[in-house]
Structures are given as C-alpha cells and as structure tokens.
Amino acid sequence: MFRHVPGLFYSPSATWNRIHDDIERSPCNFIPLLLLGSLIPALCIYYGASVAGWSLFGSEQQKFLSQRSAAMLAVAVWLAYVTNIVIMGWMVRWVLFRTPVRPSALRGMAFATFLSMPFMLGALAALLPERWLILLVIPIVAGYSALHLYLGLPIFMRLSKTKAYFHATCILAVGLLTMLVVGLFYLESWRALAPPGDYQGIEEERIEQTLP
Questions:
Q1: Whole-number average pLDDT of the chain
Q2: Cβ(64)–Cβ(205) under 8 Å?
Q3: Among the listed ranges 71-75, 82-86, 129-133, 193-197, which one has the minimum average pLDDT value?
Q4: Is the pLDDT of residue 177 over 80?
Q5: What is the residue-wise DSSP string for 15-83?
Q6: What is the pLDDT of residue 55?
Q7: Distance (Å, whole) CA 159 – CA 23
Q8: β-pair partners for 200
Q9: Cβ distance 40 to 33 under 8 Å?
Q10: pTM for the structure as a whole
Q11: Where is this chain's protein located in or outside the cell (predicted)?
C-alpha cells in the first residue's frame, strides 16, 4: 500500500483504481500504512513541541514542552489519527448503506486511510512550527483531501459520479464533525494527564538546567 502514496499526487485516478484492486485482494493491507503513517504527525509534533519550540498565537516568545509532556502529546496525536480513521470507516459504511454494493467497515477504513494521507504528510510542517507555515499548510491539505474524496469515492466504491457527489458531501460533513470531536477528546485527555507547567520559555529551561 505504501507504493500507492506517491501516485495520489501525480496520477490520482489510476492510483485509486490500483488501490481498489489491492483492497479487493487483501482487505487488511492498509493497516500497516495506517499505523505507520500516523506516526508521521506524532513524531513531528514531538520534535516541534520539545526541540524546535513553538511561538504560540498571541505571543512572540518561543516556548516548548518537556520531553515527557511532548511524548504524551505525540501518543495522543497517534491515537487520534487511528481512532478517527476507524470511526470514519464505519461512517463511510453507514453513509453508503443504500448503494448497490455497501462497503464493509474495513473497506471504509482503507478509503479513509488514503484520504488522510495529505494530513499525515502535511504534519511535516510541525518540524518547523511557524505560524505562517501552519496557516498555509492546513487549507492546502484539507482541500487536497476533499478533492480526493470527490475523485476517489466513485472509483474506489464503484459508484456513478452523480450519486458519488452526494455521498461524498455527506462523508465530508461527517468527517469534519468526527475530526473535531476526536481531536478535542484527545487534546483534553492529554491536558488532564500531562505534567503541570504547560509550555516553558527557553530562558526558563536554561535556569532550571543550571540549578543544582
């Protein structure tokens, strides 16, 4: 499944056909891509928050998380991506309940996994967490994922384009709601479990390191 990822960016229609054929042969082949691909945003968030430092909105001071807190945030991000795709697999199956060939939940998860690839790769921006870069990347990856939804749904699910557009719009609405709810759940879970102190400034860390 990893070999299909580059094709999503330069030959999407042919790639969606190849993805369809591979999932037909082995419905669980997408799982390694899901588990390993979700590590990209998790590791990038860890590096950006604990090593590179963030300039938070409303402040010009560079801040960072402790390694322990950043590691917990990375785990929360990984779980959020996996949870979101599992839920969306069932949501895709639910939205397409009246189609001639209703997809299984696994098939829906495979579809959601490839739709999330722009978000996974776009998380590389967290390695250099500048505000202007984040604001630039978010609409690009969201737009590209939505484009693949409308392009890939009729190919992957073998639907007519007329009906696929309606179903794709429903999936888009459900996906936005799911992403928001899952993201807030894991964010609040991290805030509840992470060590106190939140972000520290660079000068604060240096002072702590010099103390005996």
A1: 86
A2: yes
A3: 193-197
A4: yes
A5: HHHHHHHHHHH-TTTTHHHHHHHTHHHHHHHHHIIIII-EE-TT--SEEE--HHHHHHHHHHHHHHHHH
A6: 67
A7: 16
A8: 64
A9: no
A10: 0.86
A11: Membrane
